[in-house]
TrEMBL record:
Keywords: Sigma factor, Transcription, Transcription regulation. It comes from Photobacterium halotolerans. This is RNA polymerase sigma 70. One of its GO terms (molecular function) is DNA binding. InterPro entries: RNA_pol_sigma-70-like (IPR039425), RNA_pol_sigma-70_dom (IPR014284), RNA_pol_sigma70_r2 (IPR007627), RNA_pol_sigma70_r4_t2 (IPR013249), RNA_pol_sigma_r2 (IPR013325), RNA_pol_sigma_r3/r4-like (IPR013324), WH-like_DNA-bd_sf (IPR036388). It comes from the Bacteria. It holds the Pfam family Sigma70_r2. Residues 24-91 form the RNA polymerase sigma-70 region domain. Residues 120-171 form the RNA polymerase sigma factor 70 region 4 type domain. SUPFAM superfamilies: Sigma2 domain of RNA polymerase sigma factors, Sigma3 and sigma4 domains of RNA polymerase sigma factors. GO terms for biological process: DNA-templated transcription initiation. Belongs to the sigma-70 factor family. ECF subfamily.
Length: 177
């Protein structure tokens, strides 16, 4: 399945075509499940994450922007963020082994600093060339190995490594005050 086919299916999904959405699910759910399973280490939680992700994909299909990356990359990002939400929720729900009390909430100052850093990172990533963005998103945000990125983007390993290295160097320059 290539990007053009995914693009047609997401466009039809944006118009409410349930059959197109079902085909998109059949063609992509294995990949999304693998990403979530790798992150969460628990099949039930991974299935919950992709279920929530596909609900969001259905409701937000019209928001997909092809110039920001492939349909699959966009979908994996949605699933990954949902898996991260689950991880955060699991962390908050854990109780201290000694006191039995819920773990103390994070300091709000740290949360705001994290938000600012995340916003700056997003801005810096948007400045990267498209191929560098894709390679970095797949490797670092979606958890794919370099070899998996090679397979997904259909480019030589050396090219993928070069794109990632150059992209990371540009990110470092952008993020360094």
């Amino acid at each position: 399945m290539d990007q053009d086919d995914h693009l047609k299916l997401i466009s039809a999904t944006a118009l409410g075509d349930r059959q197109a959405f079902a085909r998109l699910y059949q063609q992509t759910s294995g990949k999304l499940l693998a990403v979530c399973l790798k992150m969460l280490g628990n099949r039930a939680l991974a299935e919950e994450a992709i279920q929530d992700a596909y609900v969001k994909i259905w409701h937000n299909a019209a928001d997909y922007q092809h110039h920001k990356g492939s349909v699959l990359t966009w979908m994996i990002s949605i699933a990954r963020y949902r898996a991260l939400d689950i991880l955060r929720y699991q962390k908050v729900r854990k109780e201290d082994a000694f006191t039995g009390e819920p773990a103390p909430p994070e300091d709000n100052d740290d949360r705001f600093a994290d938000l600012d850093a995340g916003h700056k990172l997003s801005q810096c990533i948007d400045e990267l060339p498209q191929e560098h963005q894709q390679a970095i998103h797949l490797a670092y945000f979606n958890g794919l190995s370099h070899q998996e990125v090679v397979h997904y983007l259909d480019k030589p390993l050396g090219t993928i490594k070069s794109w990632i290295r150059r992209g990371l160097q540009q990110l470092q320059r952008c993020l360094t005050p």
